[in-house]
Here is the input.
Amino acid sequence: MSCVRQLISLMGCWSLAWGGMVVAETGDWRDLFNGSDLQGWHGDPTYWRVEAGVLVGEVTPDTLLSRNSWLIYEQEEFSDFELWVEFRVSPEGNSGVGYRCDRLPDFPFSVRGPQADIDGAGQWMGNCYEENGRRFLALRGTRTEIAPGALPTLLERWASEEEMLAAVDLAGWNSLRVVARGNHLRQELNGELMCEVIDRDAVYGNRSGVIGVQVHIGPPMKIEYRSLRLRKLPPDAAARWSEESGTAVRLPLEDFTNPTTLRHLRESAPNG
Here is the structure.
């Protein structure tokens, strides 16, 4: 266990160093949430409000959902960026921070795209999951690569899902960092690298899109966000997308189901 934790620590240090290399090149930080109201955001007011400077998403026994509902930042779409979020989730809560997401025209509060998973039980916390798309892209403690139209390939597992959960305070506030540059996605919680995705699928993978936060189907829940800050990054020439050749055999999105992608990632991972 001590060796694993040392490796996690080294990965975290490498992550911060990687972030440090881009600091001099970044734009100014901007607050996506003003702490006062939902200005700039679009969502169902049944589920979203601002309370004492905190953005609150809540599902009650009287407002249970049949479909996940998103609060979407609609002022701008983002491609390459660093995003910092502070959140707290109830024990029954299931949420996520979506980024580079497409809005679904047939459903006003729905998106398709990657998200940093958040849940109060710690089952999904820290995973990279593509809502309404290719489902699980990486589990916490792993680095994956995705070929066009294919399930993710595991490149590295440095800790088990259970070991990675030790970095998270399930009862309190946590800090989430997301870095998206080209086809590289990186997610950290409280300074620990949770997962990394190298997405080489230029058809299914989103190059840019909206930021959003989620309330989930299931039991009553509460998610709180007290900070959402973003700064743009310059494109990374080393993280280029692979253009579709036109000859790849492509799985339809309907074939990317939760059981399929979850089983695939866990069975391909040592100690998974």
